[in-house]
């Protein structure tokens, strides 16, 4: 279903727009993924950014409804589904600059900001007249290539199936998992922080290839394809990764010799501890805001 079909089935006005406050990397990836999947058209989208340079880029890309003034945008499009895509530390000042009650007619607000709970968001957004459900959407950088493991939670289920507006948008950028907000810190560690762990692992695997005599370019290509292929095998066979690991390790062979070194150096434990550290840091940061 396209955005226009969905808004109709959610009982919303036919010209309900997707309004993005912030048009940076993540908003750009979500918007472009949804346009490329034909879920939305460029005319469905309204964007605000801070600088004239960013606005000019969006307009050049065919997004004519681009603004550098949130109040002007929200007055012109008062009934849109609002996606807040600014950096979390700018959220408070951004809302403080909104005119009182300006979000009163918005049917749904969605935040992609890391670390800001629905309670914090609801409290702050109430000063702009918003009193419906708050949905949090947490994409990861692979959303730039349509391969995000996106997370979703909400403080109360948006009525009239309006959550489908968010899940359908997320589905254009990869997979989409709905969780209880209590699990959001841990899930963000595994889904949104862990791409950085995996980049480090790919780089290290390539370094190993270089040490063993491969040209850098070949080593990096092989390491990248190995991660892609292994992840695909887990996803498509449904086999436990431990079983797939056992299937590669022949008795007395070269693979088990390498696995032994990984275990001896605590790679398994390092990843477990990394997820724990990212989860705890995310909890700590949410308490600071
Ligand atoms: N990066 C990740 O892996 C990741 C994952 C999940 C969620 N997130 C969340 O995604 C959000 C955006 O991150 P990003 O990497 O896309 O940031 P970004 O590239 O820096 O984009 C931020 C955008 O916000 C605009 N902006 C700033 N203040 C504004 C205001 N008052 N009104 C309207 N627009 C304003 C900026 O405009 P200009 O372009 O003119 O400066 C820019 O377009 C963050 O909250 C982050 O926590 C990021």
TrEMBL record:
So which domain of life are we looking at?
Eukaryota
Q: Which residues bind NADP(+)?
A: 21-26
Which organism does this sequence originate in? Pristionchus pacificus (Parasitic nematode worm)
Q: Which NCBIfam families match?
A: proC
**Which family does the entry's similarity section mention?**
Belongs to the pyrroline-5-carboxylate reductase family.
Where does the secretion signal sit in this chain?
A: none
What's the Enzyme Commission number for this chain? 1.5.1.2
**Catalytic function, reaction form:** L-proline + NADP(+) = (S)-1-pyrroline-5-carboxylate + NADPH + 2 H(+)
Which InterPro entries does the protein's record reference? 6-PGluconate_DH-like_C_sf, NAD(P)-bd_dom_sf, P5C_Rdtase_cat_N, P5CR-like_CS, P5CR_dimer, Pyrroline-COOH_reductase
Q: Which Pfam families match?
A: F420_oxidored, P5CR_dimer
Specify which residues bind NADPH according to the UniProt entry for this protein: 70
Swiss-Prot/TrEMBL keywords: Amino-acid biosynthesis, NADP, Oxidoreductase, Proline biosynthesis
What is the protein name given in its UniProt record?
Answer: Pyrroline-5-carboxylate reductase
Its annotated pathway reads: Amino-acid biosynthesis; L-proline biosynthesis; L-proline from L-glutamate 5-semialdehyde: step 1/1
